[in-house]
Fold each of these.
Amino acid sequence: MSEKRASESGPGPRQRPPATPAETLSAMDHVIATSMVAQHEMAQRLGLNASDLTCFGYVLEAGEDLLTAGDLATRAHVTTGAVTGIVNRLERAGYVTRQPDPSDRRRVRVAPVQAAVDRVTALYGPYYARLTEQFNDYSPAEIAVLNDWFTRTGKLMRDYLEEIRGT
């Protein structure tokens, strides 16, 4: 049976080859490994290390609800001391600024610098455009399953990380 992309044959799912859980876990392992290599490459191109780039991603994800250093430490699973170093490096590199917390003058919030957002968007934009295009191969129901799986697996990964760290 010929496999056609949904965008080539109209809306709707395409036929998928069968896969076992073991094959799927292997495919996932390969995606994770490639993603780790890509994250390091992207970070290097942006003049950052992978941990700092990941933290900058959390800053971007927060949007207008700026993170405190403590919030960032929690999301990145690092100590507050470690996150201070990360924020210092991001600030020196021109990726973030510290802004006073309007509700507590003892705290600061971490805000992205627009020029840095533009650099990151220029690098990641083409990749995310390709990922978005790939969603055309999936029905809304399949995308919902993917989203559910990624959401649940992310929680499972965070829970397991806490478990092995003994927290």
Amino acid sequence: MTQPRRNEWTQKRTGWVNNDLVPSISDHMYRMAILCILSTDAQLDVPKCVMMALVHDLAEAQVGDIAPREGIPKAEKHRLEAEAMHNFIHEMLHDSPAAQRMDALWREYEAGEPPEAKFVKDKDLQPFFDSSLPNIRHPEIKSGGKDLLCLWSRGSS
């Protein structure tokens, strides 16, 4: 795990490639972690958000960034990602305490249950505000998204 897997550092994010932007999966996770640090929401466990942002797409290092346009059903995408996480947690990290922490964070993110998972999921949608703003739940991100859309619409007129 401490040795970078080639895809983790070089696999390009599909949604971004389609829009001529090409950050890697690790670029994306790092950017999200920084954005979580910048949160002003005192109700959130910000360190937990940062850790969650750093592991939320780790499975993509093995399965790639599966975009909706690829037609892979959500259940199959989840199965592939869960299998990849199982490999990381049990085979690469030997079910260590750190591995268990990563697994718990990933499962919470996937379930979208605690406020931190909702916040990180909303951050994950942030680059695509034009289509995802109605799905954003966290007020800080929703407000920022509306502000960005307003700014973008003024710039294009």
Amino acid sequence: MYEVESPDLVRVKLQGDLSAEESELSVELYRQVGEQCGRVLVMIDASTVGGIPVEARKTIQAALGVPFRGFVIHGGGFMARVLIKMLLNTLKLFIPSMDMPVEFCATKGEAERWIARRRAALGPLPGASPLTS
């Protein structure tokens, strides 16, 4: 499940194994948010994730050019965190200069506070006036 919230945040709830089609759709959503806002923050609920098959991991190259500015992951066990971290590190290898921190939190509340701090650090959305950001 993917949900766009207050324009630069995409909330993701991973359930079961991530298919290549789901991964491709998520990249398209990230691309649309990035084009509209100039940046993308992603909050992932990994509490019910299964696996991330090779086919889904291969779609990461399609995300090149998306202006990711941070990922925060909450929930999920050790293996889920390892797989997600591996996937995001692969993206960082393609674009080493990208300002894209990855944070793991125990709870959704902690993840939301991280998003608030990250937004404050990033400042207003590109092109937004101080009154609308």
